[in-house]
Amino acid sequence: MTAVGPHLLGIAGLNREQLDFLLATSEQFIGINQREVKKVPTLRGKTVVNLFYEASTRTRSSFELAAKRLSADAVNISAQSSSVTKGETLKDTVQTIEAMAPDILVMRHPASGAPHFAAKQLTRTAVVNAGDGLHEHPTQALLDALTIKQALGKIDNLILVMVGDCLRSRVARSNIILHRILGNKVRLVGPPTLILPAFKELGVECHHHMESALEGADVVMSLRMKMEYLAEAFVPNADEYARKYCITERLLSSYAPDSIVLAPGPFIRGTEISSEVIDGPRSRYADQVANGVAVRMAVLFLLMKGMGERVTVEEHA
Q: Residue 45 and residue 62: Cα distance in Å, rounded?
């Protein structure tokens, strides 16, 4: 049994000790990614398959980089160019992949629970959830937490505000679970169609006005506003949404003057967040992207190498 279990399927089910373990291991990989030669032989001879049923830039490329920097072989499979287009089921796809003896299967899928289903079908391959439907995106929440720790020097006793798409955001769900484990106060803010009263059952505050939500915030996170919401009438139009919920420096200076800003990406400038903010000193977007590689290296490393005790990366470098 590794520090995170035989798979990493979500933040749900992890405890504070495991979160600290994952973040501490991730911090050790930051230095490796900053060296001139960004490669260690840790996972030489291992194979990581990235199976993506949805489009991705940051997550897919960072998992590929993470595997290669650990000296593992990385294979990328897109559903659009696989036998899925011929009607192959998820069960048959993952069992076919396991027959080729990979060590880790990284999966993104539009159906909530798909990685959990895949894990039940596999006996020799670890599964990492890279985002499943409306459910979770665990490595995103971990890299967000690592970025917060770097910027603020702590990850607890904080007020986190997530702005916008909370109804269908797997990023929001994983971050809510993680920050409730840490004991942080979480506020959600957005239109009533996207911030439902039922969210209060998760132990969060629900707001429909930016001013009250941002008051005293330490961390403000912009969530992606899916354009399909416009067709489904979740918001009247992009301009109206931006007028009420775009994260601007004027709002932050007035209500959360000491806050940092995270944006999981992709983001729409001028609708979700202003260019002044995303390009300004509060923004930790570039740090999030860099930390994504370190966190995913840590996850792959721990699934293959990590046992219950503390692991020192340099021992395997």
A: 20
